[in-house]
Amino acid sequence: MSPKSPLSPNALRAARPRAAALALALATAVAGTVCAPALAAPAAGANANSKAEVSIPYEEFTLPNGLRVIVHTDRKAPIVAVNVWYHVGSKNEQAGRTGFAHLFEHLMFQGSENHKGEFFAPFELVGVTDQNGTTNQDRTNYFQNVPTTALDMALWMESDRMGHLLGAIDQKTLDEQRGVVQNEKRQGENQPYGRRISAKLYEALYPADHPYSWQTIGSMADLDAASLDDVKTWFRSWYGPNNAVLVLAGDIDVATAKEKALRYFGDIPASATLPDMAARVPKRERDTEETVPDRVPQARVYRAWPVAEFGSPDGTELGLFAQVLGGSAASRLDARLVHADRIADSASVSINDAEISGTLVVVANVKQGVDPAKVRAAIDEEIKRLIEQGPTAQELEQAKTASRADFVRGVERIGGFGGKSDVLARCAVLLGKPDCYRDELKELAAATPASVQAAGRRWLGVGSHTLIVQPGDKPASSLPETVRAAPATRPAAIPAADPRFKTVASTVDRSTGVPVTQRFPDLNFPTPQRARLGNGMEVVLIERHETPVVQLAMEFPGGFSADLGKKVGTASFGMAMLDEGAGDYGALQLSARKEALGVELSSNASLDSANVAMSALTDKLEPSLDLFADVVRRPRFEAAEIERVRAQWLAGIKQEKARPQTAALRVLPPLLYGAGHAYAIPFTGTGTEASIASLSRDDLVAFHRDWLQPDRARVFVVGDTTLAQIVPQLERRFGDWKAGANAPALPALATVARPKAPRVFLVDQPGAIQSNLYVGELIAPTGDAGTIDFDFANGVLGGEFSSRLNMNLREDKHWAYGSYSGSGNAKGQRPWIAQAAVQSDKTVESLAELKREIESFASGSAPISAAEVAKIRASNTLSLPGAYETTDALMAQVSADQRYGRPADYILEYKARNEAMTPALAQAAAKTLDPAALTWVVVGDLSKIEQPIRALKLGEVEVIDQDGKPVR
Predict the structure, then answer these.
(1) I need a surface site. Which of 427, 647, 755, 787 has the fewest CB within 10 A?
(2) 11 pLDDT exceeds 60?
């Protein structure tokens, strides 16, 4: 789930992945093209007028069957984003039939009449990137980025599931995906403040007959009751081309798009046209409140209102109101609740601006020992003050800059969430105007303190709902689901197809199967440019001028491993404190300055390194670099801020222990590496409660002095600048920085022997409706000669959607929403980890399946096949030309190459080794794993699962607490 608001029921994910006659038909059958004006493209290296470059030029046309096609050309990478939005979401369901839209999203990944098998399979063979599907209240979308040469395959696949799906759906497929969805639902509920909390909030805000009152994922009863006739009726009713928008963005032009869209989609008949729903924002006559118990470490306060819908004149102003109130670390709520009164560990405001109603939600995590009523009162006082006085001119300007910067960063990508194809599709589907973002940007620029104040006054009055989550003995998942209506017992009537739309005969012979892509783009990885500052600091630059953004990172060795022999968590805490006040800025002033510049600035640690990173708008690069230099060189480490962050940090550790996934990742590394190893720490990096409580200011100052040394630093820059520009800018801020004396040596990373027998550790999560299964083992470091081979082999076992673990536990057994395995990078031995969150009553069976899969993989009793090698080879190599579309991707690759001592052309070495892979080489790499030395960690309700796990005899069983200490 990846919603705009943490409480939105939005964005549920399925996974993750010419003939002359036709040319003549194009001239007569395709509706007229509409063009959006394009702004002039900047010259290479130019960045003087970055504000004018926020534009997504497009052309559009409509097929005779009603399919609207929008085309945006972006040649920076040889890929095309294929993004299909159906204007069908959970708001189009009826009580008693909830969850159908999302369930059907899953079913549409199960193959079609002319492609038997997983939808992902042909895409993995061409190197797809960023492939997924999501459902929210208002729409269902499917998206993927494919190499330009694979566009025919992608359009064939999308058109086959649009026009030729129902014959492929049978009872077995329905039962399988019903089980997957129900485990997705359990996974969301088996969390602190989980899905059941958001359900209660929306049920309270929206009346029972409002389509936003139920969750997109549906109720268990309705999912259980869904019949094959039900789901087929749902598809026949609404999934026609006339209810869809196809966006093609990237390495494509409108002429190509017209020919291919008509060829593949033109013969699909229209369905009934789904009528638009009028805006329906509830008018609540009074405020309401409820308290819900949950097994959580601290209380949480939610305050929520129904507000203006997407595209409403008030929408932009409300967004700015929310940004000033609680959208940043410099917001009113942060300043009051977190900094001044110190009654909350965090506070935020978000808006889910959906099609027929928006929802504004305030969330505050209550500090331990504070009465939630006090926090709720402070929230109300700040809202009232903002409504009565309005934002200051400075606050509003900061909010505008931050909002514009977020948009600019998002549209660097052609696909995925928030990318250019997504922006065009959302505007077209929900408002009928692909460039509605232009209106929002104009409204953003025109907003005044008075207009923002007026929007807040109109919408944030009487009619709110307050939900307080109080720590209790039972998880919220144990609460009964609200029943709006009994599950439907017979399929709904199928509405008549819209007679306005016609089909066009196609020359596509679908009986020959999926088009096979024969050619692929070449990999052209940009050559990094290098320079040194006067003090010897190395600068590595890759230029990218398509988006007016500069990414910069300064990396230092050490990271979590630098804590060896010291207080665990020092590195992570110390790095986090760098931007809590630096130079002339206190913590709040620094946050306000970041927001005013639209700069994203972060400082953090990872296993082997510490990093200060910045993403700056090109036209604000100079002042952003000033702030960056302050954070790196002049952190304040003020005592009051240390205490504030310490309290937040300790609360965060408690949250990690309450969340099953992070609970496992806290205890597993010390079990793998053993006491005294630099990596024997919680992999969250947060340390322990005892170590964080004991940290002093002197500890943090010493960490900064010892580990942030200029002679060890590397500076990586990717984006809209040149070496001639950036080196003098860095020289002015860092050229006089000299290394200190007696810097500590990097920690020794001892080699750890594997255990002599399998071990099983159980962590109790009373009331859990799922069990989280983790199994791990140490393998060679990233720098080992066999790393590429092992990672390739792991792709067969658990690295892809269609790998063995996921196909077993999700697609075959439907006991889990997903199951994967992999190894992160490390200078020392890497941890290989496989995991699955499974329904509680299948815990033992799932453990047995994981064990069987790992053993048969490592031993070769289920040998790696040529087909599996071909799939992983294609996925690993054919995706490379399009994998570096964004500055983030380039930054990650270049910095990792430097960190692990790889050659400058490592990516070519990686590609060549993958291309040379054979089943025999992959099978030899699979033997890296020793099933007799596995360490298992299971987090679940031990009252239900402990004895059956002991009976399974996986290995010696020990019960431990969330700190890894023995219980029994």
Answers:
(1) 647
(2) no
Which residue's entry shows tokens 């006090």?
374
129-135 and 12-13 strand pairing: antiparallel
Alpha helices in 411-545 (DSSP H): 420-431, 436-446, 449-459
Q: What is the model's pLDDT at position 568?
A: 96
Query: Residue 966 gets which letter from DSSP?
Result: B
CB 636 within 8 A of CB 582: yes
Residue 561: closest CA among 302, 932, 899: 899
The answer to whether 646 touches 700, Cβ cutoff 8 Å, is no
Model confidence at 17, pLDDT cuts 50, 70, 90, reads: very low
Spatial separation of the C-alpha atoms in residues 153 and 155, rounded to whole Å: 6
Would you call 258 helix, strand, or coil by DSSP?
helix
- In whole numbers, what is the pLDDT of the chain averaged over residues? 93
Cα–Cα dist 518/791, whole Å:
26
DSSP per-residue string spanning 371-434: -HHHHHHHHHHHHHHHHHH---HHHHHHHHHHHHHHHHHHTTSSSSTTSHHHHHHHHHHHHS-T
The neighbouring-strand residues paired with 605 are 610
DSSP state of 938: E
* Mean pLDDT to the nearest integer, 533-551: 96
| Integer Cα distance of 430 and 436 in angstroms | 10
**Cα separation, 799 vs 791, whole angstroms:** 8
CB 743 within 8 A of CB 820: no
Return the residue matching tokens 């599950």: 487
Residue 141, beta-bridge partner list: 85, 134
Q: Confidence class of residue 53 from pLDDT cuts 50, 70 and 90?
A: low
Contact 545, 720 (CB under 8 A): yes
The average pLDDT across 372-393 equals 98
Cα three-residue angle 84-89-95, rounded to 5 degrees: 160
Is it the case that residue 151 has pLDDT exceeding 70?
A: yes
> Are the C-beta atoms of 614 and 630 separated by less than 8 Å?
no
Measure the CA–CA gap between 41 and 545, rounded to whole angstroms. Answer: 10
Q: Indicate if the pLDDT at residue 48 is higher than 90.
A: no
pLDDT (average), residues 809-825: 96
Find the mean pLDDT for residues 863-887: 96
* Tens-digit pLDDT profile for residues 446-481: 999 999 999 999 999 999 999 999 999 999 999 999
Give the C-alpha separation, 248 to 884, whole Å.
19
Residue located via tokens 């963005």: 249
Contact between residue 183 and residue 770 where contact means Cβ atoms under 8 Å apart: yes
Measured in degrees and rounded to the nearest 5, phi and psi for residue 255 equal -65, -45
Q: What span, in angstroms and rounded, lies between the C-alpha atoms of 745 and 443?
A: 55
First to last CA, the chain: 37
pLDDT at 18 (0 to 100): 30
Q: CB-hemisphere CA count at 13 Å for 198? A: 26
